[in-house]
């Protein structure tokens, strides 16, 4: 009973905060629209009008103690939502979703090209956003867009891939950041291979008998340095990535995305290329309409390996509310 009261009170606080955020947005939008309309009706030269609009933004920023960029973003996102997905704006008004979620939905709405895709977003986003964390919502929005407009997403990916690069930034404490902008598929493979290599390191050094006290992150960093400076990595450490894709997309009848275990969309063309590798293993999954695996059953707590793999494919990430940990890093009863 105490827990239920806490949940009810917490939801009321969350809703009140969201409504307060909506009122702030509504004030900014109305004030900005009114003042800019007044400026546009004057006979001033264009430069004076432009300076006047900037002054309106500055006034709002000073009144709310935020940056001018924040005000510009708020006005732009509000315009996107009210024009393209008005039902999302109404959910915001009711306190069902907060400003962070509205901003995430606005970013996706701005990218969608077709009225049909916007309709799907408008109908489904408020309900999902109201019951999931912001990280889950952003991942869901990426998947939704990849499913609704696969060709546009593929073209965007191709353009972004042209900017792939590696950079090194040196800190003042004797460490440096190694940053790489890579295609998602390659990054997934690198991440999986690093994790596997780190787990394969013995807990006790066989030569010295000393315990390895490095954290997993430290081991992965050391492995990366070793691989990049020695030209070759351990031959017995392979990356293992899992991608689920509907059969119709895989054979090319449709062009929807594949999904990695943690729910990130990847292009169907890349999945087809990957399937041509001699190391690729195919697994057929039969799911019911709500995504439950139908082809494997077990009685008892300790599942066989076939069920373990089926659950990993089904879930991808931990099923505890709000947790986005990859399923291969969690206990199976969290899947």
From TrEMBL:
Residues 49-315 form the DUF222 domain. It comes from the Bacteria. Residues 200-219 are annotated as: Disordered. Residues 208-219 have a biased composition (Basic and acidic residues). Signal peptide: none annotated. Pfam families: DUF222 (PF02720). InterPro entries: DUF222. This is DUF222 domain-containing protein.
